From TrEMBL:
Matching CDD domains: GT4_AviGT4-like
SUPFAM superfamilies: UDP-Glycosyltransferase/glycogen phosphorylase
Originating organism: Lysobacter niastensis
Listed name of the protein: Glycosyltransferase involved in cell wall biosynthesis
Annotated Glycosyltransferase subfamily 4-like N-terminal domain residues: 18-129
Organism superkingdom: Bacteria
The organism's taxonomic lineage, starting at the top: Bacteria, Pseudomonadati, Pseudomonadota, Gammaproteobacteria, Lysobacterales
Domain Glycosyl transferase family: 175-311
Length: 352
């Protein structure tokens, strides 16, 4: 199958540091190539991929040092090039929300759009209902809630390569881990309280966006005073495996409708259990008593830690391989592509 993967341009594919959507695009693209498909990836030039790269910008937007830049202009150029080459592909897979809709109305049947973000925003329902012909894939069933009557064609959970993060049978670090982004909805403050009440050291590997810098300085930095909590900043993929593998458990104390939560399956790939809040996708990802636990308060998290730390790390790794490998994700997308193309062929025959 000839497949175009259309990525956002904010990060390289995969991101050099923190990043979610472009990371998943990278894993999916390479898994599709490994499965024998002819894949072209539209992304920034600093991308690393086994597919054919169509470079759309000299550098991903976020780490570009240019003081003035236009993400809108960059993505309009991206869509122009995809539109110009659309006839070369059997399937166009978009990861840019609904930005492409006005330009691809005449070939919506050979597209699929994966929505990677939160959907409880005021203007989204009206916009998605305006273009009902575009097939949508959610990354969790919970993500769909705010957009009920749209053209959902499936839920496909994220996956990562099985060989990306290695299984760690014995955590060497003796600490709890927080990995992600410093922001109010990620609730690193909860992680700090949990670790201190449990008497276990906490290591925080997190990105701080400019918009969250004031929140970090006012709400989080004061909590870092004292022993037992170490803030190490943003880490790369090369550092992630050891960081998660050496951890006793990952704390995922989110306070927002998390669409998926890639870090949960990254921890599981290392055999590391997860203590997660009952928000968004969490009940679809974590299997209580197998890969971690789901809690609704700080005290529940503290009380659950002894049982969580006793979980079988080999079993956690096996559940990751069964449910959340990139191979499993790619196979699900191929099934979706084939179903959509069959429906589109039938519709075209009917029209003819």
């Amino acid at each position: 199958m000839r497949i175009a993967q259309i990525s956002p341009l904010y990060e390289a594919v995969p991101p050099l540091l923190y990043g979610g959507t472009e990371r998943v695009v990278a894993y999916l693209t390479d898994a599709l190539v490994d499965a024998g498909h002819d894949v072209t990836l539209f992304a920034s030039a600093d991308t690393r991929t086994r597919a054919t790269l169509a470079p759309m910008r000299d550098q991903a937007i976020r780490l570009d040092p240019a003081p003035l830049k236009s993400d809108l202009a960059a993505h309009m150029t991206l869509l122009y090039d995809v539109r110009r080459r659309a006839h070369e592909f059997d399937m166009l897979h978009f990861h840019v929300d609904l930005l492409h809709y006005p330009f691809f109305e005449d070939c919506a049947g050979k597209t699929v759009t994966t929505l990677h973000g939160r959907l409880d925003l005021k203007d989204l329902p009206q916009a998605y209902r305006r273009w009902p012909q575009f097939p949508l894939v959610s990354i969790s069933d919970r993500q769909r809630g705010p957009l009920g009557n749209v053209n959902w064609v499936g839920t496909i959970h994220h996956g990562i390569p099985s060989d990306l993060l290695h299984y760690s049978p014995t955590p060497a670090g003796g600490y709890l881990a927080f990995l992600g982004r410093i922001s109010p909805e990620k609730r690193v403050d909860r992680a700090i309280i949990i670790a201190r009440r449990a008497g276990i050291p906490l290591r925080i590997a997190a990105k701080i966006d400019a918009v969250d810098r004031a929140y970090f300085e006012s709400d989080i930095a004061p909590l870092l005073d004292g022993e037992g909590v170490e803030f190490i900043g943003e880490i790369s993929d090369d550092q992630k495996g050891q960081f998660l593998g050496d951890a006793l458990a990952l704390l995922f104390p989110v306070d927002w409708p998390e669409p998926f939560g890639l870090v949960m399956i990254e921890a599981m790939a290392c055999g590391t259990p997860v203590v997660a809040w009952n928000c968004g996708s969490v009940p679809e990802v974590i299997e209580p008593g197998v890969t971690g636990c789901i809690v609704e308060s700080v005290q529940q998290a503290v009380d659950a830690l002894p049982a969580v730390l006793a979980l079988d790390r080999r079993a956690i790794r096996e559940r990751f391989e069964h449910r959340f490998s990139a191979r499993v994700m790619a196979a699900s997308y191929v099934d979706t592509y084939q179903q959509l193309l069959q429906q589109d062929d039938a519709l075209q025959r009917l029209i003819a």
